[in-house]
Amino acid sequence: MKSYKYFNIQRCCAVALLSTALLVSSCKKSFLDVDPQGQQPAVEFWKTPDDAAKGVNSVYANLRSWENTAFPALVIESVGSDEAEKGSSPNDATFWNLYDLHSVTSTEGSLQGFWTGQYQNILLCNQVLLNVPNIEMDQALKERYLAEAKFIRAYSYFRLVRAYGDVPLRLSVPVNETEYNIPRTPKAEVYAQIEKDLTEAAAVLPVSYPSTDLGRATKGAALGMHAKVALYQKKWADVLALTNQVIGLGYTLFPDYEKLFRTSNENNSESVFEIQAELDPANAAASTSQYSQVQGVAGVPGGGWGFNNPSVELAASYEPGDPRRDATIIFKGETTPEGDVIPTTTPNPMYNQKSYVPFSEYVSGFNEGAQQNVRVLRFADVLLMNAEAANELNDPGQALISLNKVRARARGNNAGVLPDVTTTDQAALRTAIYQERKVELAMESDRYFDVIRQGRGEEVFGPKGWKPNKNEVWPVPQTEIDLSGGLLTQNPGY
After folding, report:
1. Based on the domain organization, do 25 and 171 belong to the same domain?
2. Which of 344, 372, 400 is the last residue of a domain?
3. Residue in 354, 390, 360 with CA at minimum distance from that of residue 372
4. What is the dihedral of CA 167, 71, 468, 310, to 10 degrees?
5. Cα distances (Å, whole numbers) of residue 171 to 13, 86, 129
6. Is 19 in the same domain as 112?
7. HEC profile of 35-99
8. How far apart (Å, rounded) are the C-alpha atoms in residues 62 and 133?
9. pLDDT for the residue numbered 283
10. pLDDT of residue 180
11. pLDDT at 39
């Protein structure tokens, strides 16, 4: 029987106390190996360099929480698109259908869960930014910690502003009700703060880390995330300049698209930023990720719950022979490249192969796939952003170079499939880039907001009930409005 995690939270900005967050242990990457600290009082914290390290590591640990990577994130960022559908059995977690069919109202609990998860991240970042400057420690390391916190704060605000539009902009740690009950900030101001944080982070963060710190935010992550933020604002010159900087940092496309998403190839040459996760048999408290579990093949040992399935429309959208189709979708009755036989008796016809962990890696008593990192930003996405910006700036030559690099990796040695795109017509090339984003980034929680920022929501999602001037954003959680005494307002149409 599935066990869902629900929350009853008085105020998301007030729940993520650092003394609690430090109880969350983390991954095999040594920078995330934070031993449980018991009930260390917050007043005794923020004294030493070790406290600073634990504070920053707690931010990374929270990124893989249920709210950030499981049901709340998947209903907000994935299932509303044309590439995904609810999955599982018809009577299981039926609230997913409200997001799939765009009929959700402001009282549905996952709206609160996603909101809470992002503001937990933000509060933890704000605690680092408030307290670490006062600790006597190596100055370069101090500045790097602050830059990491700014990056994650920016990433969380980006997720919020895409999902809800105007949101409260909190840049400090609240100490009373007056300080945490603040109104929504216009999204243009939120975007400006996101860009400020990312600019400052990129100026400090290193290009790479030694193996002991693998997975931390890098200069490339800050520049690449900044490019994506600029993409959503149609700042084409900025997108082009930022992606060109990332291209110059030495990232390469991983040669095997299917193996790119396996646990053995996490943090590879294509990875710009991943949410780190691990299954540590000696530390159950650290092995908490449910990202893979909730999407895994249902009804088999080592599989999962079977939610967030690829759609029939997605399966039909690939060009003939595109290897990415079979690398993205697990089909009922197939045998995976890793040798797992998918029974014909599974309840769903398709599952997300990018979140799949081979069944042999399952450890009894732990979440299925707890070791699977979440790919947040890949170099392929950077190249496609570069191509889109170049095309919008009337440089089809550059656009084709970046676009065709992605297609060349996808076809590999399969001569005769996925030929290079050659058109220089801006409209036709724009369509080709949109299509390439769809199939390259499928099932990576990108499609839904990608289509909306392209201005194609009604065209693409209309058959699912999506309506313009309403469904560009989700409703603000009603609990937040109620607790604010009406200071927070609802989005139009909800």
Report:
1. yes
2. 372
3. 354
4. 140
5. 11, 36, 9
6. yes
7. CCCCCCCHHHCCCCHHHHHHHHHHHHHHCCCHHHHCHHHHHHHCCCCCCEEEECCCCCCCCHHHH
8. 22
9. 85
10. 80
11. 52
Specify if 310 maps to a domain: yes
CA distance 300 to 242: 44
Q: Are residues 200 and 291 in the same domain?
A: no
The answer to whether residues 77 and 180 belong to one domain is: yes
Q: Do 181 and 295 lie in a common domain?
A: no
CATH number of the domain at 110, please: 1.25.40.390
Q: Identity (one letter) of the amino acid at 201?
A: A
Q: Which of 372, 396, 428 is the last residue of a domain?
A: 372
Closest CA to 129 of 18, 39, 292, 28: 18
Six-digit token pair at 408?
Answer: 């060349």
Task: Please report the pLDDT score of residue 18 as a whole number.
Answer: 42
pLDDT tens-digit series, residues 182-238: 999 999 999 999 999 999 999 999 999 999 999 999 999 999 999 999 999 999 999
Whether 54 and 179 map to the same domain: the answer is: yes
Paired with 84 in beta bridges are: 310
Write phi, then psi, for 10 (nearest 5 degrees).
Answer: -65, -40
Q: Are 135 and 19 found together in one domain? A: yes
Helix (H, G, I), strand (E, B) or coil at 275: strand
Cα–Cα distances in Å, from 486 out to 180, 206, 489, 490? 14, 44, 7, 9
Find, among 180, 178, 381, 401, the residue nearest to 274 by Cα: 381
C-alpha 28, offset from chain centre: 21
Q: How far apart are CA 195 and CA 177, in angstroms?
A: 28
What is the C-alpha to C-alpha distance for residues 304 and 327, in angstroms, rounded to an integer?
18
Residue 296 is assigned to a structural domain of this protein: yes
**Residues contacting residue 298 through CB under 8 Å, at least 6 positions apart:** 87, 88, 89, 304, 305, 306, 346, 347, 348, 351
Query: Residue 258 falls within a domain, yes or no?
Result: no
What is the structure's pLDDT at 20?
A: 37
Which pLDDT does position 175 carry in this prediction?
Answer: 84
199 and 292 part of one domain: no
Domain count, the chain: 2
| Helices and strands (DSSP H and E) totals, the chain | 19, 6
Residue-range definition of the domain harbouring residue 85: 12-204+458-486
In a domain, 245, yes or no: no
Residues of the chain with pLDDT under 50: 1, 3-30, 33-38
Of residues 267, 269, 264, the one with CA closest to residue 246:
269
Number of other residues whose CB lies within 10 A of the CB of residue 108? 18
d(CA 326, CA 359): 18
pTM of the model: 0.93
